[in-house]
Amino acid sequence: MHSHKLIAALALVTGLAAPVAMTASPAAARAATCTVTLYDIDAFNVAERDGRDELRFEVGGNLFPRFNSNWFGMTAGSDGDPGQFENPSDLIVGNSNVTFDLREVTPPAVGRGDSLGRATAHGSVCAGLAVGATAIEEDIISGTDETAYSYSVRLLLTGR
User: Fold this and answer.
1) Rounded to 10 degrees, what is the CA torsion of 145, 62, 135, 32?
2) Whole-angstrom Cα distance, residue 132 to residue 123?
3) What residue stretch is flagged as signal peptide (predicted)?
4) What per-residue confidence (pLDDT) applies to 27?
């Protein structure tokens, strides 16, 4: 009887016994790309003397809003949401950056208008995200046109 215990002990020591399955929880997969969307825009002060800016975003060569409206109006203290700009978005690939160019237009022929400044989503932030994880980057866009203006633009990065 002792020989069976001895053989079993030797088998374990020499590795002849079936190894125990060891699993570690896998590290969260890192995002190869990120979707970047407008999260929020707040107007602190507007660029035009009439107290109202007619705004668009240029993202990836496209102007937003683009289908239901040609611009979204904001006054000092107002809040804009993604849907009001028809959900502008773009994709970060690798370490590239994506810019959301805030543009003031003059109706009725709005066109591209004048750039007030840019909010930037950085590839370096995307590279640190796990798939499905999110981060928000905020830029303050400010300057002087007809009057001094300032906007807070927040961009949502989602790892893919």
Assistant:
1) -140
2) 16
3) 1-23
4) 57
Write down the domain spans for the chain. 29-159
Angle at 105 between CA 104 and CA 106, to 5 degrees: 135
56 has a pLDDT exceeding 50: yes
Check if CATH label 2.60.40.150 holds for domain 29-159.
yes
pLDDT at position 109, please? Answer: 84
9 pLDDT exceeds 80?
Answer: no
Scored b (16 or more CB within 10 A) or e, 18-39 reads: eeeeeeeeeeeeebebbbbbbb
Question: Concatenated DSSP letters for 44-78?
Answer: EE-SSTTSEEEEEEEETTEEES-SS-S-EEEETT-
DSSP 93-159: ETT--EEEEEEE--SSS-SS-EEEEEEEE-HHHHHTPBTT-EEEEEEEEEEESSSEEEEEEEEEEEE
